[in-house]
Amino acid sequence: TFLEMARKYNLDGYWHDFMDTLHVPCHAAHAHYTSSPGEGYNRCLAAVRDAVLKWKPDFLIETRMKMSNINVKQFANVLETYDMPFDFDLNRGLGVFVKSFASGVATKLDPVQWHMYESNENVAKLCATVALMGIPVFGVDLRLLPKSHVSVMKGWIKFYREHRQDLIDGEFTPVSFALLFPEFQIRNARKIFLYIGASSTAPVNVAECDEIYIVNATDADRVALILDGIIRGQWHTNTCNCFLETIRSSDKTIERSSEYLDESIPQGGLLALWKS
């Protein structure tokens, strides 16, 4: 049935939804063809996966929490957090959870939404979060948004496209374990992206990195952070606002391998550092 519908409408993917409670045991008198509902659940998902991927190898099979778990990972190639369009903190917190076991598949947060009168800085935090935690996804009507919000989105989508391969291939690692205010890093070769979700930060090891991006997704206009193992010498810095426009550039001399960084970074903006 899944394959027939996919072929008929030339679909690119399916979203498996509302299948969270199918593991409840069945005690009815009719015949049962598997040892448990769980086994039947897995066999059905495997049949769908095998059929559609044989027909179209890049077919998308997406699911969300609670189904986005280690068991279902073998049957899907896109994992998403739970439905919570207006709970920014929980969305990003669960995003860290999903990323922890999502190697080899794509991830995305629940599509972010916001009020049309929201501040540009808060919109930028949402955009930065979905850009760094997987495929950027939005649940807004672009026709109703003010131009400033669209400009924020354009800035962060451009950033995602410029760094897409590094964000996809990089190693995702939580730095601190506060559920609702995460601090995490994505590192690929000598480039590292640091997402700061709260003013209380943990030290980050940036040894051998010569390109550092620090994203301010907190409610403060400063970020204080210890960068361990940083390369000594001359660095160039760019500070960007929530539109990712450069508002300040400077050169900085790093004299110690453990640098205490205390910088003014606009909310929803970032600080970029390059080794000279």
Helix fraction bin: 25-40%
Shape: elongated
**Structural class label:** alpha/beta
Measured distance between first and last alpha carbons: 59 Å
- Main beta sheet strand tally, sense and closure: 7 strands, mixed
Q: What sequence of helices (H) and strands (E) makes up the elements? A: HEHEEHEHHEEEEEEEEEE
Give the neighbour order of strands across the main sheet.
Answer: 5-6-7-9-14-11-12
- Give the helix tally: 5
Q: How many DSSP-defined strands?
A: 14
Mean pLDDT: 94
How much is the radius of gyration in Å?
22 Å
Strand residue content: 25-35%
Report the uncertain regions.
none
Structure description:
The chain is of the alpha/beta class. The chain is 27% helix and 28% strand. The protein is built from five helices and 14 strands. The protein has helices spanning 2-9, 37-55, 88-99, 120-132, 147-169, and strands at 13-16, 60-64, 78-80, 106-108, 171-176, 183-188, 191-196, 204-205, 211-216, 222-228, 233-240, 246-254, 258-264, 270-275. Strands 5-6-7-9-14-11-12 form a seven-stranded mixed β-sheet, with helices on one face. The chain has a four-stranded parallel β-sheet with strand order 1-2-3-4, with helices on one face. A hairpin with a 2-residue loop joins strand 6 (183-188) and strand 7. The protein is elongated, with a radius of gyration of 22 Å.
